[in-house]
Amino acid sequence: MKLHYYYDREADVLYFSQGKPSRKDISEEASDDVVLRLDPRTKKVKGFTILNFAKRGAKKYAPLSLPIKAELLPA
Fold first, then answer.
1. Which one of 33, 44, 55, 56 is at 20 to 30 Å from 9 when CA atoms are compared?
2. 72, pLDDT greater than 60
3. Strand, helix or coil at 13?
């Protein structure tokens, strides 16, 4: 399944999603300004949101650790 992303410049929010979001999904705060979207049945990460994305990038050293595993497949 592909990972889709969208940046909302006005809100300064970056969204990543694997599959279509559902109202049944569970949101869980992972760290400051990072929210995970979980499948309610499997508890697997379906997407995540990064708040204040551009502001984070403006900082010289602003590492961002996400508590998710990713598998990259060839296109």
1. 44
2. no
3. strand
Every domain of the chain and the residues it spans: 3-53
CB atoms within 10 A of CB 68: 13
User: How many residues in the chain?
Assistant: 75
pTM over 0.85: no
Question: According to the model, what pLDDT value does residue 56 have?
Answer: 76
Interval 27-66: pLDDT, tens: 999 888 899 999 999 998 899 999 998 887 666 555 656 5
Nearest alpha carbon to residue 69 among 40, 51, 54, 48: 48
Q: Which of 41, 36, 12 is nearest to 24 (CA)?
A: 41
CB-count exposure of residue 14 (10 Å: 0-12, 13-18, 19+): buried
For residue 47, the cross-strand partners are: 17, 37
